[in-house]
Design a protein that fits this description.
Length: 159
């Protein structure tokens, strides 16, 4: 009886894989810094590391205060946290087109608190997408990053 169930299920699974079925594989990286006794961690996450042309990849950058003190940074002319996507010599930022208000240039996190921003990118054929979280804290920056590959589709068609 078990064989009668397992064999058809295995056949279906192999068929789906052969037809281009793909289980998303999220990827992430982290960076941390100790700022005068204040540990701040920045995480960069992507919803998948291998996509088809036309699929949307979601990117998320998160900064977290890991200490018992409030962390604060105030920049006048730059966003404190940004997502940068680099594809074939072109750079796109989460902050592109946004006014540099205090929502972007000031960050205050209580102990254990986090702030996250998200950005979607529609993949094009043969792209290699390099994305990183650009966190500026006055004395430097942290830039954890991830890479997403886009499958080759002959003639630009979806496989």
């Amino acid at each position: 009886m078990r064989r009668q169930i397992i064999l058809p299920m295995l056949t279906i699974a192999l068929g789906l894989v052969g037809c281009g079925f793909h289980i998303p594989n999220p990827v992430a990286s982290s960076s941390g810094v100790n700022l005068g006794g204040q540990a701040v961690v920045v995480d960069m996450w992507a919803s998948d590391n291998l996509v088809q042309p036309g699929e949307t990849v979601k990117f998320r950058a998160t900064v977290t205060n890991k200490t018992a003190k409030t962390f604060s940074v105030d920049l006048k002319d730059l966003p404190v946290l940004d997502i940068v996507i680099y594809v074939q010599s072109k750079t796109t930022r989460w902050s592109d087109g946004k006014a540099l208000t205090s929502d972007l240039t000031h960050l205050e996190l209580k102990p254990g608190e986090s702030k996250a921003i998200e950005m979607d990118y529609v993949a094009k054929c043969c792209d290699v997408i390099l994305a990183y979280a650009d966190f500026r804290y006055g004395g430097g920056g942290l830039v954890p990053g991830v890479t997403v590959f886009v499958k080759y589709a002959p003639g630009g068609a979806l496989p």
